[in-house]
Design goal:
The chain is built from nine helices and 20 strands. The radius of gyration is 23 Å and the shape is globular. By secondary structure, it is of the alpha+beta class.
Length: 360
C-alpha cells in the first residue's frame, strides 16, 4: 500500500517575496507552501502527498471545496505539492521520521481509473449471462478459472516519484539511465502464463488482460480488450514466451486516445504504447523492448535518451521533465520515466506545468 501520509522533517523554511502570510519549505524532494511561522527547520510534520483524499472530518473542512483531494497548486509563483500538518492532528504517541500514518488519519488514494475498474467488475458480477459465458469458457477450455484480482506474479505499473527518493541522485551519480516520455492514459497489462496442456489440442497459455488494478473477464468488452485484439497481443506474448523458453510474459503499456483522460493527444482512435516487457520476472531493457515492439508492429513509448546521467538536484530533474510531448507536438509533456535495468532502479518525474494545467 502506498504511503500517502508520513512523518517527515521540515527543511529549508524560507520567506516568499511579496507576502508575509506564507513561506516555502522542502519535505524530502518536494517543495511546499506553508503558513508563516507554523514550522521551523528540523520540525517533524505529517506530510500528505498529492493524489491523496483526506477524510471528511472537521480538521480538514478547508479542503471541502476541493472535494478533499490534495493536488498541485501554485501560490505567489511557488509550486506547492502536498500539505504539511502539525503532529497534533494525530493521536498522542511517539512518532519517528518515516512512520506511515495513512491509515491512522483515514487517507485514501485518489485514483479515477479505480472507479472505472470497480464499475467494470460490478457490471460483470451483476450480468448473469456474462457470468454464464465465463463459466463455460473456463470449464471446457484450458484456462484457469479466474477472479478479477491481479495474478501474484503481476507487477503494478505504479512507479515511485523522484521527490520521494531524492538521495538516488547522489547514490547513482555517473550511472547511465534510459529516459522515456510518460504518457497520460490508462495503464494496461497483458500476460501469458504457461499451463499444462489439456486434451493436447488447445493453447497451453492462460492469457490475461488487466487494467491498473484488476483482471478483466474475457466476456467484458472494453478498450483494454480492443487493444489486445488490434495489436494481436496474444501472438506477441506467445512468441516471446516460446522463443525465450519462459513460462510467464507480461507486457505493460499505456492506452491513449478517444474518451481517455480527455484525449490530450487529439487522436482519432486509440493507441497502445508499451513501456515494459517482463519475462519470468526479469524486466527487459528499453532497447530490447523497442526492438520487440518494432518486430510485432506495436507502439513503444517515446524514448528521450539512452545515455542519460542524473543531475545533482531534484530541481534540475523537474526542469528536464518539462517541455513538449514527443508523442504529439504542441501538447505539454506529462513527465518522464527514468530507468536503469542493471541496478533495477526506476522513478518518474511529473511535469508540474502539466499538473497545474490539468488541475491535478
Amino acid at each position: 500500500m502506498r504511503q500517502l501520509a508520513t512523518i517527515q522533517e521540515v527543511r529549508n523554511v524560507r520567506d516568499i517575496f511579496g507576502t508575509d502570510r506564507i513561506q516555502s519549505c522542502n519535505i524530502k524532494g518536494w517543495s511546499l507552501v506553508v503558513k508563516k511561522d507554523e514550522f521551523n527547520d528540523g520540525d517533524k510534520c505529517v506530510y500528505v502527498e498529492i493524489d491523496s483524499i483526506l477524510p471528511d472530518k472537521p480538521e480538514f473542512e478547508f479542503m471541502r471545496a476541493h472535494k478533499f483531494i490534495v493536488k498541485t497548486v501554485k501560490m505567489r509563483g511557488k509550486v506547492s505539492q502536498g500539505i504539511c500538518f502539525p503532529l497534533s492532528i494525530l493521536p498522542a504517541g511517539k512518532y519517528e521520521i518515516g512512520d506511515d500514518v495513512t491509515s491512522i488519519i483515514g487517507i485514501t488514494k485518489y485514483y479515477p481509473e479505480g472507479e472505472d475498474d470497480e464499475s467494470i467488475v460490478s457490471g460483470v458480477r451483476k450480468n448473469k449471462f456474462l457470468r454464464f459465458i465465463d463459466s463455460v469458457v473456463y470449464t471446457f477450455l484450458p484456462y484457469k478459472k479466474v477472479s478479477t484480482a491481479l495474478p501474484n506474479f503481476m507487477l503494478k505499473t505504479d512507479i515511485e516519484r523522484l521527490q520521494n527518493i531524492p538521495d538516488v541522485l547522489q547514490k547513482c551519480n555517473g550511472v547511465v539511465f534510459h529516459v522515456t516520455e510518460k504518457l497520460d492514459g490508462k495503464s494496461a497489462t497483458f500476460f501469458a502464463d504457461r499451463m499444462p496442456r489439456r486434451l493436447g489440442i488447445f493453447d497451453n497459455f492462460d492469457i490475461g488482460v488487466c487494467s491498473k488494478s484488476c483482471r478483466l473477464p474475457r466476456s467484458y468488452k472494453s478498450e483494454y480488450w480492443s487493444m489486445y485484439k488490434k495489436y494481436n497481443i496474444k501472438k506477441m506474448l506467445k512468441c516471446i514466451a516460446n522463443e525465450m523458453n519462459v513460462d510467464v510474459v507480461v507486457i505493460q503499456g499505456e492506452i491513449v486516445g478517444q474518451k481517455i483522460q480527455g484525449n490530450k493527444y487529439m487522436l482519432d482512435g486509440r493507441e497502445f504504447n508499451v513501456f515494459n516487457i517482463i519475462a519470468d520476472g526479469e524486466k527487459m531493457p528499453t532497447n530490447v523492448v523497442r526492438d520487440l515492439c518494432e518486430m510485432f508492429g506495436v507502439n513503444h513509448v517515446p524514448i528521450l535518451s539512452m545515455d542519460f546521467k542524473l543531475p545533482p538536484t531534484v530541481e534540475e530533474m523537474i526542469e528536464y521533465s518539462k517541455g513538449e510531448s514527443v508523442y504529439r507536438k504542441g501538447v505539454i509533456r506529462e513527465g518522464i520515466v527514468v530507468r536503469n535495468y542493471e541496478e533495477d532502479i526506476s522513478f518518474k518525474v511529473i511535469n508540474p506545468d502539466f499538473l497545474l494545467k490539468n488541475d491535478l
